[in-house]
Each structure stands twice: as C-alpha cells, then as structure tokens.
Amino acid sequence: MNYLEFIGFLQIVLIATTPVVFAGIGELVTEKSGVLNLGVEGMMLVGAVTAFVTLVITGSYLLAFLFSIFAGIFMSGLFAFLVLILMSNQVATGLSLTIFGIGLSSMIGKKYIGTPIDGLTPWYFVILSFLIVFLVGYFFYKTKSGLILRAVGESHTSAHALGYSVLKIRLLAILFGGSMCAFAGSYISICYAPMWQEGMIAGRGWIALALVVFSTWKPSRILIGAYIFGGTSIFQMHLQGKGFKFPHWVPFDDFFSSAPFFNMSPYLATMIVLVIISSNKLRIKLSAPACLTMPFYKGS
Question: Does 9-287 carry CATH code 1.10.3470?
Fold first, then answer.
C-alpha cells in the first residue's frame, strides 16, 4: 500500500465509521443515566428510512434529517414510556424495539427500494461526529448537568433524595440517544450509501452497543473503538479487492480465503477485543454505571 492508497484508506475509514460514532455516543449518554437500550439497530433503521422517504417526497435535506431525528425521538420515547413509567424489563423492551424497527422500516420503505437520490458529501458529518464526542465529554465532566446525569446513573436513590427528578433526567438521556441513533441511520441512507435497502444498517447498531462497553463508558474512547471496527471493515474489503488468499499451509485455506470469512472479520475482531476487555471484571464493574438496568420506583 503506497502513500496515496493509505490516505484513501484513512478517508474511507473516517466516512464508514461516522454512523457508528453517532449511535455509540447516543447510547453512551443513555447508559450513563442508568438505562440500557438495546433498540439501537431498530432506531437506526427507522431513522434511515424516514430520512430517505422524506427526501424523496420533499426534496429537502434539512427536512429529511429533522424528520429522521423526530422518528428517533418517537421510537426512544416509546421505549422510555415502557421502561420508565410501566417498569418493563429494559433488555426485553430494547430487543422488542429493534424487532419493531426492522418491521416498521421494511413496511415504510418497501416501495422506495431502488429509488435514486443525490447524496450529500459526508465530510461535514465526519467533523460533526468529532464535535459531538467532544461536547458530550465536556458535558459529562465540566458541567453541573453532566454531573447530575452521572449521579443518577450511579445512585438514583441518592439523586432523588437530593431533589433531582430521576425519571425526567433519564427521559432526556433516552431521547438524546434515540435522536443520535436515528441521525446515524439518516447519514447512512443519505450520505454513506444514498439509497434505501431493507436491513442496510447491517449490524452497526449492535457494534455501537459493543463500543459503549469497549469505551468503558468514556466518550473519547468511542472514537478509538469505532475506528478499530471501521479500519477492520475497510481493510478486509481492500484485501478482497487485491485478491488476497491465505497461504496453502493454513488449514481449510479454501474456507478462510472466501468472502464470508472476510465479511465476518470486523465483527470477529470486535468480539475478540470485547473478550479481552471483559476479562478484567474489576475494571468493567468500576466503569459501568452502578444503576445500569435498575428500574427506579418513585417514592422508594
């Protein structure tokens, strides 16, 4: 790989990784408040199809992104109502939200498959992803509101005793997370791959969830994890394009040199990194919000 190829490789990694950064930072804020939302994949899909359909109908990129964010707020608001008010199980509700999002996006976008649009340049959004990570980090560690949100995630009973509205703070965190996930989806359907195709998020929502654990709930590390995944994804495509094959002495070389192995390699790399990180139980225990997945009963 020469210098120009390397620069091109870095540019593609930045562009491909941006939606994972948006979704990951949104989920991190949600989890910092003590709520686990596994519906990231579904919210990204609904955001993607909403932005695409809005753009086709109105021709306005601004409305496309705005309606996408509103769709994310609707989806996450539904989740918030179920887990904060009705006290449903967060894990089961999040999984249901993903299933609901997959079905809803498929229904809405069915007649728009293959519809051509003019995509936007992704570079503004790449810069925006860095800015949002910086702002979230500043919010957490340099502002009183960020301290309160973190306090709710660490001990909601203590925060409630001090007079803070736990449910309101968690609601705002959930809505922010949902809007970021939907925005990530809209980036994919309008900037990264200007089209609509069922299931086009392709597991990025689950990667975003894994990145929160990888980052040990610290905003700046979201970028590191995201670019490890993005770099692996683009590198495997580069190898396939070069016609790379494993040496013949590698066992089952016919299998390992096939496209399916290369396609699964980014997810395999993510799992390996997570296993390494999770092996340090103490670090995970100390880093994760103490009240994560714990319901708050008002008056308790």
Answer: yes
